[in-house]
Amino acid sequence: MLDALFKPRAVAIVGASTKELSIGNVIIKNLQTYGYRGRIYPINPTAPDVRGLKAYKTLDEIPGEVDVAHIIIPAKLVPQAIEDCGRKGVKAVVINSAGFSEMGEEGARLQEAFLANARKHGVRVFGPNCQGIINTDPALKAYCNFTFTYPEPGSVSVVALSGGVGALIMQGLFDLGVGMRMYASNGNACDVSIPEILRYWGDDPGCKAIVLYTEGFSDPKEFLETAREVTARKPILAMKAGRTEQGAKAASSHTGSLAGVDIATELIFEKTGILSFQDEEEMVRAAMAFATQPIPAGNRVGIITNTGGPAVIATDVLVAAGLEVPALSETSIARLKATQLPQAALGNPVDVVATAGGDQFRAAVDALQEEEGVDSIFINFVTAPFTDTHEVARQIVAASRNGNKPVVCNFMTDLTQERYRVTMGILKEGGIPFYATPTAAARALAALARYGRLRKRDIGRPETFPGTDAAKARSIVDRARKAGRSVLSAAEVYPILEAYGIPVAGWKVVQSAAEAVAAAGSIGYPVVVKVDSEAIDHKSDRGGVAVNLKDAAAVRSAVEEMQARLGAFGSLRFFVQKFLPGGRELILGARAERELGHLVMFGLGGIYVEVLKDVVFKIAPVTGVEAREMLASIKTRALLDGVRGGKGVDKEGIASLIQRLSRLLTDLPMIREMDVNPVLAFEHAVIAVDGRIRI
Amino acid sequence: MLDALFKPRAVAIVGASTKELSIGNVIIKNLQTYGYRGRIYPINPTAPDVRGLKAYKTLDEIPGEVDVAHIIIPAKLVPQAIEDCGRKGVKAVVINSAGFSEMGEEGARLQEAFLANARKHGVRVFGPNCQGIINTDPALKAYCNFTFTYPEPGSVSVVALSGGVGALIMQGLFDLGVGMRMYASNGNACDVSIPEILRYWGDDPGCKAIVLYTEGFSDPKEFLETAREVTARKPILAMKAGRTEQGAKAASSHTGSLAGVDIATELIFEKTGILSFQDEEEMVRAAMAFATQPIPAGNRVGIITNTGGPAVIATDVLVAAGLEVPALSETSIARLKATQLPQAALGNPVDVVATAGGDQFRAAVDALQEEEGVDSIFINFVTAPFTDTHEVARQIVAASRNGNKPVVCNFMTDLTQERYRVTMGILKEGGIPFYATPTAAARALAALARYGRLRKRDIGRPETFPGTDAAKARSIVDRARKAGRSVLSAAEVYPILEAYGIPVAGWKVVQSAAEAVAAAGSIGYPVVVKVDSEAIDHKSDRGGVAVNLKDAAAVRSAVEEMQARLGAFGSLRFFVQKFLPGGRELILGARAERELGHLVMFGLGGIYVEVLKDVVFKIAPVTGVEAREMLASIKTRALLDGVRGGKGVDKEGIASLIQRLSRLLTDLPMIREMDVNPVLAFEHAVIAVDGRIRI
Lengths: 695, 695
Hints:
Two copies of one chain form a homodimer. By secondary structure, the first copy, chain A, is of the alpha/beta class. The first copy, chain A, is built from 24 helices and 31 strands. Chain A has four domains: about 5-285, Succinyl-CoA synthetase domains (Rossmann fold, 3-Layer(aba) Sandwich), CATH 3.40.50; about 295-455, 3-Layer(aba) Sandwich (Rossmann fold); about 505-580, Dna Ligase, domain 1, CATH 3.30.1490; about 585-695, 2-Layer Sandwich (D-amino Acid Aminotransferase, Chain A, domain 1). Chain A has a seven-stranded mixed sheet, sandwiched between helices. In chain A, strands 21, 26, 27, 28, 29, 30 and 31 form a seven-stranded antiparallel sheet that branches.
């Protein structure tokens, strides 16, 4: 589908310019400089040639076919230009011009207008307000883009809505000597979307890993589904900016996207197995490791170092990232003893000391390759000027090939000196990812290991729960909707929960003290009585709630007192419910996210949610694995296991409740917000005590 | 004092070697290559010359005076070499050789032996197991060091115990084009210490900022006092590694230092106003900003950008670091409107758009220089190939000098292209700190702002509390000590607390039920009765605690029951104390840290400390400002203000209690550990309920 765009045989430039400092000139220059193998057709109404190429007055005049046309003319002229492209049979346009949906209503109308023309002729639109694409394939070398980095061919593809960040990532890879496969920065993304590009690259055998920058998604559901397919085949490294409210505000202004402070993007990354980053530099450095190294089988790292302090820093960073730096086996220690200098420290880190040469490095890497207790190898290599650093590099390269563990190197040197550039070249040619600081190198290795964990994680499928009565739940919601009500009463919420097998505290709605006593008798004491009226806010403050009523007399007098106190609100109904003392107070909830479905929330209730904001979210449908992850990821999870001699609570029951709630939400997409709060968790039971649904 | 070491007029190399790949050769090569202005004397028993310099068989043969002698010979020969240096009148030795305290007992003995010789002759020792020093002063150019980076002269000085990390920092500054003043990496630091070096640099007018790497301190108190003096004059940027248990283990092996997982180093940094980092690269980048930029007056940042996405990232990072990106004034907006391109977005960030030239950048920086609502300026500058990037850089430089706000630039470009290297040169010559990513640049600016806050922070002096009875407290402790007891009883702890004006719940120790009833009567009901015997562990489990006793009968029967139940332990005493229902449970504590004094701990008691580990520490003496910082920095601080309709507690009372505890610890340094747990905080009172002291 996107072949015409990413593998164009001929490119026209509508708005080609003879002025050097102009986009219409730079794009042609880039195609020329980068060595584009196809044909370049400048379109210019007056100039006979542009940058030495024959110029055409209109697209019509071009003798051959055109796959891609760059559009670099004022916004108001774009709809006609697209019409012309359609007539010419141009397959895809890259609209570099700005002035569309990112500039308010008038721009949005122009965008609609050119899109209509494009659709009429089947022209695919990339952009507008965008940079363009690059395909580094040596057989093509298509640089349809106005930026300045000329990437080496490689296996990492980069996509970013923002051209600025896309260029930053591309330059970052280039600076690290990491080759790139394809590049796309699609600005307003009015037609060719990021999911479509991801799918295309998912099928590209030349692409080994994808780096993505985003500020939010226009169609999160489509993204989620596509990303899930693609991550099953290759890693996606991604960063989402606009994480803070101020950042989101800045984001919304520059691409006309509807970015907002959302937690959904991170949740989408998590659900689809995308490796998420919060630092663009860290992401690019990780990509360098992904480009050449295998994924480690586990978290255990062996460190080899020829200098002390950087090994301490690396250990700190690795351990803080959840990796381990375990003790080495007796066998490895013995091997090292036989091969290292007498001053070497034979632990983990293995300190081969600064005077170590190639032999010592070789033997150390070999030992760790064969050490069963480590899954990856971290090397600190400072180019001590009294050693043969070339030989050290050669031995690191050779030994790294002599096994299947990833090797990452912190290479500390001065690259302004020719001698050390040669050493660097040996590492680079040898495919060793290297970084200039231990922290940077350790984070890159940590990213590989994090991806290893992600890849192993199988969230499974959502469970189905036999015995649920979806029809009943739906009928209750439909009835409320028909009655024009958006908030459901407790007496409606409870049957819905029960229809999904969510245990609720026994309850009954009654009209009189006598009925209340009868209801309490059948529910069993103690009970709670609450006045049940939408007209009465702040029921507790108004004396509309009585808890822990232990006998009939207490129920009767509670109801009578409420009738006396609140009679002014008209004839009252009362909600009688089992009172459950003790129990750990939980809070569950959900809200519908634009275009994505529901986010399900879980946390501990009361002060834990109020003071600590200790809640976690997942995107519905929530699987069993995900539900258990929710329990394990709150800060106060220890409270679920019992502290200070207290008993733990029924965690499997909570996980089941979360999944049943998720199923309920999937079946009832019209629910906009839902709280089940509190839920009381006991040692062998989990019981919902109150609920609220907004449709 | 350290002039001879850092400004040597002549350097001898004991262990000079003709072998290129050896330390004894490299040090001479470095002195030569770097252009050392003093005399170089190789000492070699056989070679007539080394690297073209006349070699001497012994130090004695050297015709002139020697300020510094490098020692690069096997460890066991070092004591004699130091003796020889002493006789020659060498002022300081840099012992590059390893094999001393870092290698176990035998090495430690050798270290003691050469130190004795050094002291005898008044020779200062730098190292052993160290790299050396560098002084970039163009009049001297002393490179007494075996590493490979040749720094430009500048105003940042670098000190690191670890040569590997020292070199890393030096190289990092060099890569960024930041000049260095002096460098010191002192390895085992057996004589010349980091505090001494800091004090020396504190007095060095050529040093504008100090960068420090450490893995712990052998004399934390000396460090604390020195750092406090130096930070009053110039910024110290510091990083402490060995933060994780594994990292600390790695640290302890390589310099023979007694590093451990300590929180004390971070607390020392905090107390002395040292700017702390956890990423060496971030620290070096911050140093670049400190080298040229003023400290911002506040947290408000104005952002200028010629590309969207990087401004979003910068905003995220700045806001997450506690900075603000506020709206601009009407005046600034009007100025921008008059000067910017029509497509520009005139908010904060100011998006001057990719086609902006020097005029637009100039006008934008000028506007922010005069905008009263911002304290610093952040610039994203991507070298759009269709603009005059040199002119943009020139205007950024000119405008940045046109005001007194710090300017930090994210400069996104390809430095392999000559054109952009020229642009970079303009920024560099103009003293604009620039970085390759928005995150890196934003963090550097955030470091400047963080330092601005540190500099303004005055923790004040510890308060004195009139009416404290230090003598009484000391006499109780002395009595226990004389009796050979290390754990003080409640009956001893309470009077000590009272002697420092720490309110304690009314209490009395009694021997019988009748006495207990009388005591309860005078204390006032309700009361708690506890059996008071060191012989009885787990008093509650054994029925030795009765709470909330409301009258004489209850007290009598409680005591009688305990006598019956626990009589086997011998004649019993009972602790009768006021029972205080409600109140927020706090925990205070302290422990003595090796060589530093006490760390004082504060947190919320019960599950907050158990589950959330929500406690904070300060080094005693704790001032009023610091005590209030402790209250403000626990995660559950909202609980002190009251939640869910609950009342807040007496925060000033807590702060006073913390300070009184701190004073108590200062007066009683023999206390090794102390708990005041629980302390109950009420709306208008804070009362200690139990305490424990270990001496």
